[in-house]
Structures are given as structure tokens and as C-alpha cells.
Amino acid sequence: MNYVQADEAAYEKTGEIKLHGEEGFAGMRAAGRLAAQCLDMVSAHVAPGVTTKRLDDLIREFVLDSGALPATIGYRGYRHASCISLNHVICHGIPSDKALRGGDILNIDVTVIIDGWHGDTSRMFWAGEPKVKARRLVDTTYEAMMLGIEQVKPGATLRDIGRAIQTHAEGRGFSVVRDFCGHGVGRIFHDAPNVVHYAEYRDRFGIQRAPETELKPGMFFTIEPMINEGRPDVKLLKDGWTAVSRDRSLSAQFEHSIGVTETGVEIFTKSPKGLDRPPYAAG
Ligand code: MF3
Ligand code: CO
Ligand code: CO
Hints:
Blueprint: E1 3-5, E2 17-19, H1 22-43, H2 52-65, E3 69-70, E4 82-86, E5 89-91, E6 105-114, E7 117-126, H3 132-150, H4 158-171, E8 175-176, E9 182-184, E10 191-195, E11 200-203, E12 206-209, E13 220-223, E14 226-228, E15 234-236, E16 243-245, E17 251-253, E18 256-260, E19 265-267
Parallel strand pairs: 1-2
Antiparallel strand pairs: 3-6, 4-6, 5-16, 6-7, 8-14, 9-10, 11-12, 13-18, 14-17, 15-16, 18-19
Helix pairs in contact: 1-2, 3-4
The structure holds 2-amino-4-trifluoromethylsulfanyl-butyric acid and cobalt (II) ion (2 copies).
One cobalt (II) ion (CO) binds at residues 109, 111, 120, 122, 255.
């Protein structure tokens, strides 16, 4: 694996993992905080009867009014300020006129750009009271993400992150989605490295293992596990975006943008209001 000083690298994806300095940390703190504030704002609006398009409108207006840009608008032809993924949708759900129903669980994923820096975060929400099993899936997914983040320090590896997540999710009888991963983040939305959420698994081609890439101070990436109630397999719908679980079982996801520090980890997208996981008081 190659590393490159971020301030000497062009603002493009090179395949090398960028190592950022104080300016990068300051930029990511500002972008991460706004992305988290945006989810804090939207948490008060998630309720039965509300459409996901309405939630996306609120997000777009909040981001633009804050002097930032929604990174997803115009990204590879995507047209919305957020991805909103309901129930069996794993990720990249498209906001629509469909209204939320009591018992729905949903992921809302926002990425904002401030001064060129990308703050990327998502949380689960629910409308009304979820079923016990849905709540258990959401709780397990949040815990898995945080256990992955706890692994982050210089000298640990990407595989350590995946192992912590996979062990927790599978220990609860759930499965880790393999077809989507976390990613380097910074001035580039999706940069090297890929951050998979497993240590290893066996498929018909053999054993697939996460790379043992060593973590170094100044690396920025997301950790964003998608955990399914049933099988891990993904199906992409005809709209070209919406990814659902093949067996239509429930799926959950949380995402933080983080930086590796000299001693451990800094989470850039923590909720300023402590609304990092449901239940949210106003929800
Ligand atoms: N925010 C998503 C991520 O976590 C990416 C969404 S790209 C979009 O990486 F085009 F689907 F919006
Ligand atoms: Co991401
Ligand atoms: Co995201």
C-alpha cells in the first residue's frame, strides 16, 4: 500500500491513501459537524405520514442555508441531497412521494461540502414504534459501527475494523453486506482506501479477506456498516441506485467520517445534540 502527503497530492483519486495534516482536520471538523447537525435537524421531522421527498427538501434547504453544498446532487447523475433507505433497502434509496408508515425503519445519509471538505454521515431513524427485531437490528448496527471505530489507531489495520464489526453482527445472528464499503474521504468524496466491514468470508471463489492495510495518523475514511437481518446478498433495482436485500429482509446502516490521530481516532460527524442513535426524543 502506498501513502502520499495530502497537501502534495492533487485533488483527485490516485489509489494512494492520503495523509492529512492540521488543515485537513480543521476542514473535516467543520464539514462533519454540519452533516451531523443536518441529521439532528431532520430527526424532529421523521414521523408517520411524512414523505421521504419532504425530508430530502428539508435537508437540501438546511445545507444550502448553511452556506454548504449537498455533495450528492449531480454526483454520478444522482439528483437529491440525501439517500433515504427504508426497511429492506440497504442503501442509496431515492427520496420519493411515498409516505412513512408506523413501524418503518430508515437510514438517512447526507454528505455536505464546506471549503472543499466532505462530511459524510448517516443514522437510522424510525417512524412510530418499530418491532422488537427491527430495533435489535438497529441497535446492533450502531454498536458494530462503534466497535469498528474503537479499533482505529496507528498500527491497527483495516482488517481489525472489519473483524470487530463482523463479529458483533454475526454474533447477533445478522449478516454483513459485502458489496458496499466505507471509503477514504476528504477533498474527494470517495477516495482510497476501501473500508470493508468484514475480516473474511467464504464464497464460491474461495476465502475473501480484508486487506491488512496499516492505519497511519492523518488518514481520513468512513466506517458505514450495512447489516441485514437475513442473507447478505444485494439486488440493485432498475432505477440503477436502490440497493435492496435479495431476500427482502430488513437492513440497517450507520456511518461516521473519522480521522486517525497520533493516539487513536477523531469522529468528525458526532451529533452536537447527542442524537447519534434512536430513539430521538422528538422523533
Ligand atoms: N453518502 C453515500 C456514502 O456513504 C454515497 C451516496 S452517493 C449517491 O458513501 F449518489 F448515492 F448519493
Ligand atoms: Co460514505
Ligand atoms: Co454516506
